[in-house]
Amino acid sequence: MERILLYVEDTPGMATAATWALRLAKDMSCRVFALSVVNPNAPRRRDKQTSDAEERAWSLLYEIEDDALEKNVRISLLLETGDPLPRLTSLSTSYETELIIASADSRLTCSELVRQSNRPVVFVK
Amino acid sequence: MAKISELLPRSAIVLNLQSREKFEVIDELVRPLVAAGAITDESEFVSAIVRRENMESTGIGLGVAIPHARTKAVANIVLAFGRSDSGVDFNSLDGKPSHLIFLIAAPEEQKTEYIMTLARLSKLLRKDEVRIGLNKAGSPDDVARVIMQHES
Predict the structure, then answer these.
(1) Is the ipTM of this complex over 0.95?
(2) Which of A52, B86, B98, B150 is the most exposed place for a label (fewest CB within 10 A)?
């Protein structure tokens, strides 16, 4: 395995999932693609909230990047806007990642992600 | 927390980068920060930034790159900005050259401020109107004005 996609969200379980993903990537000498998707159509989200969500998403991505550097893990950051599930599955395919890792407390519906993805998915708890 | 515009000295704005290779561009942006006394150990800082560039892409797409490093060679968070008409290959995931390059230098112990600065700058540079403004800017004051206008 050479490429892992880590789906990054602002949830309490994210730090655990990121740590696990980086450890796996280090052990297997994989490259990590850390992806966050800001959904502008989330309920009650207005422009200001979308802007705040984008800033928060970047800060989560850069936190993970900083940890990756300490662990000597190669990482690329991706921030996308749109509907998270189709963006995630589509980018996983286009970047040819071989595994998707998400937090078990992801806002995505786990069964939907597994059904729509053509890659193995690991939920970290 | 300081605004992006407050962290970018006018003397560290290079509107016509001469270099075409990314490590040469980084050197070109580090030089004014060393001259201003913002980076105290040039070789340590450049080593840190080269190490990061070799581990990952700091090209975030849309013609933008943000090389960055946090080391003891820096006293306070500071930025430099360079614009390249021809573009520089920062290994962006979209495969396109970077024309707008922001370098961030931060002290080792200011991790939170460093992450927040990176996040705020990345958000800012995803706005079309900011990139258009920076591409059109005719002077360092114009660059500062564009950033100030769009900072929340």
Answers:
(1) no
(2) B86
Does B135 reach chain A within 8 Å, measured CB to CB? no
Which residue of chain B comes nearest to A65, CA vs CA?
A: B56
- Considering the four listed CATH numbers 3.20.20.10, 3.50.50.60, 3.40.1380.20, 3.40.50.620, the one that applies to the domain covering A3-124 is 3.40.50.620
Architecture label for domain B4-150 = 3-Layer(aba) Sandwich (3.40)
Q: Do A66 and B115 lie within an 8 Å CB cutoff?
A: yes
- Spell out the residues 6+ positions from residue A112 whose beta carbon is closer than 8 angstroms to its own: A85
Task: Express each pLDDT in B100-112 by its tens digit.
Answer: 999 999 999 999 9
Give the best residue of B68, B91, B123 to mutate against chain A (max A CB count within 10 A).
B123
Interface A:B, Cβ pairs < 8 A: 49
